[in-house]
Amino acid sequence: xxxxxxxxxxxxxxxxxxxxxxxxxxxxxxxxxxxxxxxxxxxxxxxxxxxxxxxxxxxxxxxxxxxxxxxxxxxxxxxxxxxxxxxxxxxxxxxxxxxxxxxxxxxxxxxxxxxxxxxxxxxxxxxxxxxxxxxxxxxxxxxxxxxxxxxxxxxxxxxxxxxxxxxxxxxxxxxxxxxxxxxxxxxxxxxxxxx
Length: 195
Known about the structure:
Elements: E1 15-16, H1 18-25, H2 29-37, E2 43-44, E3 47-49, H3 50-59, H4 73-88, H5 99-121, H6 128-147, H7 149-157, H8 163-182, H9 191-194
Antiparallel strand pairs: 1-3, 2-3
Helix pairs in contact: 1-2, 7-8
């Protein structure tokens, strides 16, 4: 477990050997080698650049691990949190090597997906494809019902006018209604407005 300081003490050297760096942050020398292999140790020749290395290690530390969790460390952590946060979350949001940003993005996406799944199960969310298919089916049924009116009523209305004229009038009115529905109209025009 790496205990990175929130504020780097002024007495710490700018550079040191890997062994000295291991003692500074309280890990083994092989642990420093693992961090070096992962690209988290900034080297200046054979010496470790202390501040830059600690900054890199902060950016790549798993947020759920590491740090001093003793009760005495809580005030130090709270005091140093304001300074540590910009370093921990620094860098580009698209930087694939910044573990904390990528983990936060993944957790947010996972939470949004769970919320959508729960809303769908509760009936508060409908998939667009299902909604579109249902709307298309209802619209098609409505159009077929409206367009069947002339065939059903032309014979009954024929004593007033010739059957062909009644059928033509009913068909024209049904087409006007279907066109209005297809255009998304809220209300049908009156006979005076239609004429």
